[in-house]
Amino acid sequence: MQSRRLEAQKAMTIDQVSTRDEPVVCIVDDEGPVRASLVDLFESVAMKAIAFESASDFLERCDMGQAGCILLDVRMPGISGLDFQDQLAAAGNTMPIIFMSGHGSIPLTVKAMKAGATDFLIKPFAGSAVIAAVGEAIRRDAENRKEAAIRAQVQSCEARLTPREREVLHYVAAGLMNKQIAHEMQISEIMVKLHRGRMMKKMQAGSLAELVRKFDMLKPDLKLYQ
Fold first, then answer.
1. Under CATH, which architecture does the 160-225 domain have?
2. Once rounded to an integer, what is the mean pLDDT over residues 119-142?
3. How confident is the model at residue 225 (pLDDT cuts 50, 70, 90)?
C-alpha cells in the first residue's frame, strides 16, 4: 500500500497537492519507508505533504516559491543534504529547511543551523517532535511571506515617487522640518509641503510614524536610492 502511494506521488507535481499559498511539507529522503511513514504522519494531522526520493526529484517537481517547509535528509546518494541546502539558497528558495539524520553530530548540526536550517532532528524521532518542528517552520514561513508582501507593496509605492518627492521622503524620514527641507533643497516651503503631501499619498502613509516604518523597510535595498 505504501509503495503504491509513493509511486503515485512520483507522478505528481506540487501544484497537484496544494495551491502555492497553502503550506506543504516537502519530504526529501532516499528511503521509501521513511517517506511513506512521514506522509502518513502529516496527513493524520491534516498537513499536506509530498515526498521526493532525491534532490533532483525535488528540483524537477517542486516550486521554489511554494509555501511550507522542506524536511531534508542529510545523507543521500548524489548530493548531501548540506550541499543541497547551499544549492537551494543559491536558487532563491524561501522555504525553511528542517534536517533529519541518523548520524547527527554537533559540528554537523552547527553547520546546518548556521546555513539557515530551522531545526535538526535525529532519527529515530517521535512523531510529536517532527510535527512540532514542522509547525514552527510553517509559522516562520508564513511570517516571512507576510513581511515580503508588505515590503513589495512599499517598494511599489516608492517607485511611483518623482525625484523631488523621493528627496523629500529622505529628509522627512531623517526628521527634518519643512523649513529645513526647503533650505536643503533650495525651494520654497510651500513647494516642500506640496511635494510632501503628494509623497505621503503615494506612499499610502497616514502618519509620520507610518512613513518612517515604511522607509525603514526600504533602506536595505540601496538600489531604490541611487
1. Orthogonal Bundle (1.10)
2. 93
3. very low
Contacts of 157 (CB under 8 A, 6+ apart): 202, 203, 204, 214
Cα-Cα-Cα-Cα dihedral sign, residues 148, 70, 112, 133: positive
Q: 151: exposed, middle or buried (C-beta count within 10 Å: 0-12, 13-18, 19+)?
A: middle
What phi and psi values does residue 65 have, to the nearest 5 degrees?
Answer: -95, 10
In CATH terms, the fold of domain 2-150 is Rossmann fold (3.40.50)
What is residue 223's DSSP assignment? G
Identify the band that residue 23 occupies on the pLDDT scale cut at 50, 70 and 90. very high
Q: Is the CA virtual torsion 154, 156, 162, 166 positive or negative?
A: positive
Neighbours of 80 (CB within 10 A): 16
pLDDT score recorded for residue 52: 93
> Where do you find CATH 1.10.10.10 in the chain?
160-225
Q: Look at the block and give the residue holding cell 524536511.
A: 71
Instruction: Please state, in angstroms and as integers, the Cα–Cα distance from residue 198 to each residue in 25, 66, 172, following that order.
Output: 45, 37, 13
Delimit the CATH 3.40.50.2300 region(s) of the chain: 2-150
